[in-house]
């Protein structure tokens, strides 16, 4: 054991001063740190305080003799090597000391070379013992690290969101994690150890894994895939690979299961989206084509009829423009690709602009469009002005379109308890209770005998909901058929 100064500490316990000081002179020249004790009690106190590697112990001392000190050293400090110092007349005592655990002994009087030789041998012995202990601890630590690594690997496999199973060439399952049990529909307590067919009941998937496990694949290392349809519209993608050995042989297969239900749903939504967009584009284009054909084929018809056809064609064209605009808006919102920066805006100014711009449209239908604002100014909002204008425009335009001629539309705003509350109320056709959640879905439009002639994209309310929720707010709907609807928006002022 080496101290902070890089020296090996040696303790000399002897009641003869000359022996103590002689040992100190001889051993100090060997680079050893020598500590002296005149009796056994003092030596034991030093051993209790300091880390001593080697002790030279005189057997014949007054008070506590050497054998008693040796027994206490072996009991309390077994790592310390003890060399006993004895006279010729006490060789038998030295042998007894060796039996009690002393490393070696040296007889008085001794020559410096004798002391150096026996101490060097003891120091080397101590060094070897310490090296052996270090290697032992290192081996234990390595084994512990290996066990920890295995435990860590098991934990990772158990907590993976993907299902994992490993099979042998003969199809026996040797490992599977809880996610595999869950995805394949097994009880959580089912353990590995049986044939693959015991766990996988789909014949196609089972056959694929057995072929990979047995090495029956066209290209080693190639991933085989299989889609598994489960109940409740759930879909699982199974991917299987060989487990190669050091010499390239196949040791079995690893099967990974991933829940792809959401991806399948997204793919289905994409297909529905394309179908709806195609329908929304085809219908107005067909109308425009038909009306333009009538104009070209009947050039001699009266001007008023031509104007009606052109007006209708213009209306349908404008509907297509609105559809494209709404598609771009909702794509920008959902992809969070809106690069416009929010700023501090005054909501009453945007409300006035929206009401002023839509008043002519409302008047052409005989509607009264009213804006009710509090006497004091409304608090400012931090938002994108164009997005906020789109929200108000969509709600007021819907109220105008879905209210019979001569109706009443009211727009109210107030602030309360940290929220800005905006209401758009009409006395129009209203929305049935079972449709009130659906109106916020893309392309959904309330269609009945009263509304089937109303042109729209079915994207206005989804855009409103996305913008409002993006600002940390919410939208509520109250409606009754043939009595009207009230859309209420709450936007946080903080």
How would you characterize this protein structure?
45% of the residues lie in helices and 22% in strands. With 494 residues, it is an alpha/beta fold. The chain has 4 domains: 8-135, Rossmann fold, CATH 3.40.50; 160-259, PAS domain (Beta-Lactamase, 2-Layer Sandwich); 264-334, Helix Hairpins; 343-492, Histidine kinase-like ATPase, C-terminal domain (Heat Shock Protein 90, 2-Layer Sandwich). The strands form 4 sheets. It has a 5-stranded parallel beta sheet with strand order 2-1-3-4-5, sandwiched between helices. Strands 7-6-10-9-8 form a 5-stranded antiparallel beta sheet, sandwiched between helices. A 5-stranded mixed beta sheet has the order 12-14-15-17-16, covered by helices on one side.
Q: What's the total count of β strands?
A: 17
Tell me the fraction of residues in β-strands, as a range: 15-25%
The helix/strand class is alpha/beta
Q: Tell me the name of the CATH homologous superfamily of the largest domain.
A: Histidine kinase-like ATPase, C-terminal domain
CATH level 3 topology of the largest domain: Heat Shock Protein 90
Helix content: 40-55%
The H/E string reads: EHEHEHEHEHEEHHEEEHHEHEEHEEHEE
Please tell me the overall pLDDT: 81
Task: Give the strand order of the largest sheet, numbering strands 1, 2, ... along the chain.
Answer: 2-1-3-4-5
Tally of domains: 4
Label the CATH architecture of the largest domain.
2-Layer Sandwich
The whole-angstrom Rg is 46 Å
């Amino acid at each position: 054991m080496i101290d902070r100064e890089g020296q090996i500490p040696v303790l000399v316990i002897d009641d003869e001063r000359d022996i103590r000081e002689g040992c100190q002179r001889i051993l100090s020249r060997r680079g050893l740190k020598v500590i002296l004790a005149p009796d056994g009690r003092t030596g034991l106190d030093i051993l209790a305080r300091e880390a001593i590697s080697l002790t030279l112990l005189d057997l014949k001392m007054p008070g506590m003799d050497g054998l008693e000190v040796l027994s206490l050293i072996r009991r309390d400090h077994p790592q310390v090597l003890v060399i006993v110092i004895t006279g010729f007349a006490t060789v038998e005592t030295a042998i007894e000391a060796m039996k009690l655990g002393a490393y070696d002994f040296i007889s008085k009087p001794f020559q410096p070379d004798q002391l150096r030789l026996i101490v060097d041998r003891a120091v080397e012995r101590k060094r070897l013992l310490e090296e052996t202990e270090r290697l032992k601890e290192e081996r234990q630590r390595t084994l512990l690290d290996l066990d920890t690594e295995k435990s860590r690997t098991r934990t990772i496999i158990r907590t993976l969101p993907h299902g994992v199973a490993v099979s042998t060439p003969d199809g026996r399952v040797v490992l599977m994690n809880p996610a595999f049990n869950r995805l394949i529909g097994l009880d959580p307590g089912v353990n590995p150890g049986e044939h693959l067919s015991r766990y996988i009941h789909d014949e196609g998937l089972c056959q694929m894994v057995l072929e990979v496990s047995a090495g029956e694949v066209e290209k080693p290392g190639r991933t085989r895939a299989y889609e598994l349809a489960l109940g409740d519209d759930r879909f699982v993608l199974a991917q299987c690979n060989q487990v190669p050995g050091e010499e390239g042989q196949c040791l079995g297969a690893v099967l990974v299961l991933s829940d792809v239900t959401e991806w399948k749903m997204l793919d289905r939504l994409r297909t529905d989206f394309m179908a709806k967009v195609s329908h929304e584009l085809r219908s107005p284009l067909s109308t425009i084509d038909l009306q333009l054909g009538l104009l070209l084929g009947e050039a001699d018809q009266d001007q008023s009829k031509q104007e009606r056809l052109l007006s209708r064609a213009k209306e349908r064209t404008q509907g297509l423009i609105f559809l494209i605009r709404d598609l771009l808006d909702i794509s920008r919102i959902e992809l969070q690709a809106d690069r416009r920066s929010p700023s501090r805006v005054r909501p009453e100014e945007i409300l006035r602009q929206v009401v002023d711009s839509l008043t002519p449209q409302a008047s052409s239908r005989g509607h009264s469009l009213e804006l009710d604002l509090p006497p004091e100014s409304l608090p400012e909002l931090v938002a994108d002005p164009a997005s906020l204008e789109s929200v108000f425009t969509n709600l007021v335009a819907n109220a105008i379109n879905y209210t019979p001629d001569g109706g009443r539309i009211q727009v109210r705003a107030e602030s309360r308890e940290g929220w800005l509350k905006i209401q758009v109320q009409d006395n129009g056709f209203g929305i049935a209770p079972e449709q009130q959640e659906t109106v916020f879905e893309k392309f959904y439009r309330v269609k009945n005998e009263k509304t089937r002639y109303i042109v729209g994209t079915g994207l206005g309310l989804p855009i409103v909901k996305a913008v409002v929720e993006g600002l940390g707010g919410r939208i509520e709907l109250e409606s009754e058929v043939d009595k009207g609807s009230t859309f209420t928006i709450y936007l946080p002022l903080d």
